[in-house]
Write a structure and sequence with these properties.
The strands form two sheets. A five-stranded mixed beta sheet has the order 3-2-1-9-4, covered by helices on one side. Among the domains are: about 35 residues; about 100 residues, Beta Barrel (L,D-transpeptidase catalytic domain-like), CATH 2.40.440.10. By secondary structure, the protein is of the alpha+beta class. Helix 1 crosses helix 2. It is elongated and about 80 Å long. It starts with a helix and ends with a strand. The chain is built from four helices and nine strands, in the order αααββββββββαβ. It holds the Pfam family YkuD. Keywords: Cell shape, Cell wall biogenesis/degradation, Peptidoglycan synthesis, Signal, Transferase.
Length: about 200
């Protein structure tokens, strides 16, 4: 049986090479070469698992050669991506859309009990300008924001959740005046995904 499969595979490859070098008709699918048709006929007549695997492999090779596989020769669809990792262990409830861990200098987005983005590095308020802990809601979003309190300092992708405190793009290596600073990819993701009314938990 194994030698038969090997001969069929060799015949299939030879047929596909012939298809690749031939000039097909402009408006019609190219006819299967004799060697390929033999593989199709023999594999289609078999019900054994080994020949089922051969049919799948033949279908993939036919597709790569620009030939629509016959019924029963369609390769299986790709495996679905793995589910996101669970949310980090924290006091942040499942009802929160965004979580901020001040002690861990990290923040993430979640949907129910599943992590949807992050955790990512962030910085928060310095001494005297501490970021308040608690449960809040997103109040507004301003893509090209500046701080009127601090000399029009840029605050791109600002997502406000309590008073004048917001998530926004900034250097996470330096403490802020209360806002949550993140690098640009994270700030942009928060801006796009968080909506007015979403719950933010700072702990």
């Amino acid at each position: 049986m194994r030698s038969t499969l090997s001969r069929l595979a060799i015949g299939l490859v030879a047929g596909l090479v012939a298809v690749g070098t031939a000039t097909p008709a402009a408006s019609a699918q190219p006819a299967l070469p004799v060697e390929v048709q033999q593989v199709v006929d023999q594999a289609a007549a078999s019900s054994a698992q080994a020949d089922a695997d051969l049919r799948t492999a033949a279908g993939g090779l036919l597709e790569s050669a620009g030939i629509t596989p016959p019924p029963g020769f369609v390769p299986p669809p790709p495996a679905p991506p793995p589910p996101p990792d669970p949310t980090p262990q924290s006091p942040c409830p499942r009802t929160a859309a965004a979580c901020v861990d001040l002690d861990g200098n990290r923040t993430w987005l979640q949907s129910g009990e599943r992590l949807s983005y992050g955790p990512v590095r962030m910085s928060h308020g310095r001494a005297g300008w501490e970021t308040p802990r608690g449960t809040y809601q997103v109040t507004r979003k301003v893509r090209h924001e500046v701080s009127r309190l601090f000399d029009n300092a840029p605050m791109p992708f600002a997502v406000y959740f309590v008073g004048g405190i917001a998530f926004h793009e900034g250097d996470p290596a330096h403490l802020s005046h209360g806002c949550i600073r993140m690098d640009r990819p994270a700030a942009e993701t928060y801006f796009e995904r968080l909506q007015v009314g979403d719950t933010v938990v700072v702990f």
